[in-house]
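Record IST1 homolog, 328 aa.
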Amino acid sequence: MGLLRALGFERYRVSKLKPHLKMAEQRLAILNSKKTNLIKTQKREIAQLLRDGKEEKARIRVEKLIRDDFTIEAYELLSLLCELLHERAALITSEKDCPPDLREACCTLIWAAPRTEVPELKVVAEQLDLKYGKEFFNDARKNVGERANVRVVHKLGVAPPSAYLVVKYLKAIAEEYKVQWEVPDLDLSEEQLETSAMPAPSGYSVPVAPGSGLEAVYERAPVPPPSPPPPVAVVNPSAPVVGSVVGVVPPQPPVATVVPPPAPTEEEMRAKAMIDAKLAEGRTFTKPAYFPEEPEEEAPPAEEEESKDEAPPDAVSDLEARLNALRR
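=>
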């Protein structure tokens, strides 16, 4: 058959178009019946998933259910178009070009043929190709000018259903099967719910250790928060001390080590007292170079007592030098 068509010997035949249109219509009805029965089973499974807390898996199953609903709807439309072309097969045969009122039906069947489970539609598309030419066929296959039925194109498209539709399906199934389920917060705006697909599952509904049920093994004791670091004392040398921080020793400034001078002896103390007394009387004390022996003279008793307390010259000289060094 393909060879004859390649060589150009195959021609359009209405005797082949009409029976395949009728068989496609019957095939579409059978597929819709199977899908409808399958949807009933899917709804029960989705309700059980919601009851078990497996919401993410239920979302995926609902997308499949919505896709089956879309397919059933599209198949119903295609079945109507097949019946329409079957009734107007004589008009198709008599006209060289596609009639305007049949253009959408023909383009829709050609576009949907490779996107369905109906092999008879492929034969119908081939007969329309032989009837109206390759250019008409290619434009209809690519939906140039959007001549195909918009509803069929949407229902048989590959875009996933919106998040809004998924949530509505889940809510309706939960109500039908009496399942306690609340609509989750998807963090989507109203516009995003209607235009965006359902977010991909993150796995929050998958339990730990689902096979053994030993999820308690993976539980850990709560980790205490880390203790805050100890306070750091900031020393300002110019600021007065107004308090202290417990457990914090502020840094101390370095202290210079001072070596005290040796304590004066008893003789040095007596010599110093004598010098201070003379200075207080306004007398000048000079170091004698030599003390010669002089005859004893009578002196007042007070002066004799003072001379008795005088220290030797060498001791006085030595003491004066040390006192001068201390004063410096």
